[in-house]
Design brief:
This protein is mainly α. It contains four helices and no strands. The protein has helices spanning 2-57, 61-87, 90-113, 117-179. It is rod-shaped and about 95 Å long.
Length: 180
C-alpha cells in the first residue's frame, strides 16, 4: 500500500505540473487571439471596407467588388482562426491559413486596379501585416498543442490516482475480510 500511496503522490505532482502548463498554454493562446488576431483581423476588415467604399464612391465598381471579395475571404480566415482557437481542430487552422493565402492573392489582384494612393496604401498595409497575423496563428498552434499535451497529462495522472485508490480499497477490503 505504501508503494500505491507513493504512486498517488507522484501522480498528484504530475497533475499539478500539467494543470499549471494547461493554464499557461490557455492564457497564452487566448492572449494571442485577443491581442493580436482579433484586433488585426478587425483592422484588416475596416481597411477593406474603406477601400470598397472609396472605390464605389469614385465609380470604380470593379475595385469595389474585388475589395468585397477580399473582405469575404478575410472573414472566412477569421472564422476558422476562431474555430481553431475554440476547438483545436487542425483542419480549422489549415483552412484559416488557406483563406489567408487566397486573401493575399486577392489583395495583389486588387492592387492592379486601384488608382487611389490612399486605397493602395490600405491594401499594401494589409499585405504587410499578414506575416504577423500568420506568425500569431503559428504561435497559437504551438500553445494549442501544449494545451492538448497538458490535458493528456492531466488525464493520465487522474487515471493513475484512480487505479491506485481502487487497488488500496480492494486490498483493504480483502484484509478486513481475512480478519473476520
Amino acid at each position: 500500500r505504501v508503494a500505491m500511496l507513493e504512486r498517488i503522490a507522484a501522480a498528484d505532482a504530475d497533475f499539478q505540473a500539467a494543470a499549471r502548463q494547461a493554464i499557461t498554454a490557455r492564457e497564452r493562446r487566448d492572449l494571442l487571439l485577443s491581442e493580436t488576431l482579433r484586433p488585426m483581423g478587425r483592422a484588416f476588415r475596416e481597411d477593406l471596407s474603406q477601400i470598397a467604399d472609396g472605390a464605389l464612391a469614385a465609380g470604380d465598381t470593379s475595385s469595389a467588388a474585388d475589395a468585397g471579395a477580399a473582405q469575404e475571404t478575410l472573414m472566412l480566415a477569421r472564422l476558422y482562426a476562431e474555430r481553431f482557437a475554440s476547438y483545436g481542430i487542425e483542419a480549422h487552422r489549415e483552412r484559416a491559413e488557406a483563406e489567408l493565402a487566397e486573401l493575399a492573392d486577392k489583395l495583389r489582384a486588387l492592387l492592379i486596379g486601384l488608382q487611389s494612393p490612399e486605397r493602395r496604401a490600405l491594401a499594401n498595409g494589409i499585405i504587410q501585416g499578414m506575416p504577423e497575423f500568420l506568425n500569431a496563428m503559428a504561435a497559437m498552434k504551438s500553445w494549442s498543442e501544449r494545451l492538448a499535451q497538458a490535458e493528456t497529462d492531466i488525464a493520465t495522472a487522474n487515471a493513475t490516482v484512480r487505479e491506485n485508490v481502487v487497488a488500496i480499497v480492494d486490498s483493504t477490503v480483502t484484509d478486513l475480510a481475512r480478519l473476520q
